[in-house]
Amino acid sequence: AKDNGGGQYHVYHPEMFQRVAHRVMLEGEVRQALAKQQFSLSLQPQICAKTKRLYGFEALLRWQHPERGMISPEDFIPILENSQHMIELGYWIIRRCFELAVAIKKYGLTNSRIAINLSAGQFIDSNLPHFLTELLLEFSLRAQDFELELTEQTLVKDMDHTIAMMQSLKRIGFSFAIDDFGTGYSSLAYLKKMPVDVIKIDKSFIFGMLENHSDFQIITSTIAMVKNLGLIVVAEGVETKAQLRSLTENDCDIIQGYYFSKPIPEAELFAVLDKHTTA
Ligand code: C2E
Ligand code: CA
Ligand code: CA
Ligand code: CA
């Protein structure tokens, strides 16, 4: 920004223009990418800490761009947020998760669930319950086959609307996980007000948990609190055996992270699962 005297700033500085241009470009590309099938999902296993059994998978979006290679969802989802394109892409993601849930059941994993990440824009869309209900019928699946992940940012955006949406999806049978727990602002307030089932402790707390005393304290007291509320607690970003052991000792329910498995590209899922069960 340029100071043009008197403390006045130009509104249109170059960085902002670039950001808008980038966004417009991305929005155009998303539509093409959907048509050209450049999107796919990777599934990351979630494992029960005590029994080491499979609890479910988190579906993570991947964009294989013809020129730019693999683009991280962190580099385009926040930019698309609140656009019609994100809602469209979101519908594609949800439908793909249903297709994968059918394939996973056919493979024999009848009790595992798929966690679907929902962006704030998707959650404001009043057509969402209808869309999900129709898919349950189309694919003969149960709402219990899925878990819907919301971030703290989504929850604080419009509390009343969010609670109403959660309640109507809850009536259909969907469960909710709070993602990136501990990184937002009012974590405790919405635990009281919202029909939440699962808390996912953010990986930023897990990475240094055995070296950093306060991260360790935050984790263990979060686990204790979540369990006292009768909810399920997931640790994400678990990379080492030592982290796994400590989390298990401290009563964490579910483990997700590179220690057990990186996200598995959907095309490789069954080959990887075969290897595990025959190993
Ligand atoms: P997230 O929902 O917090 O997902 C967890 C991220 O942590 C994933 O990154 C996953 O690959 C990564 N991760 C899992 N275990 C480990 C570990 O042990 N070590 C490390 N270093 N990382 C681990 P990814 O796939 O790059 O996704 C980044 C973010 O993009 C997600 O964070 C989520 O916010 C967003 N995202 C991904 N897919 C979707 C989607 O389908 N819809 C929406 N709305 N957002 C999505
Ligand atoms: Ca997530
Ligand atoms: Ca997360
Ligand atoms: Ca995250």
UniProtKB/TrEMBL annotation:
| Coiled coil stretches, renumbered | none
Using the record's annotation, list all stretches that form the EAL domain.
23-277
User: What is the protein's name according to its record?
Assistant: GGDEF domain-containing protein
Q: Which residues of the full protein are shown?
A: 526 to 804 of 823
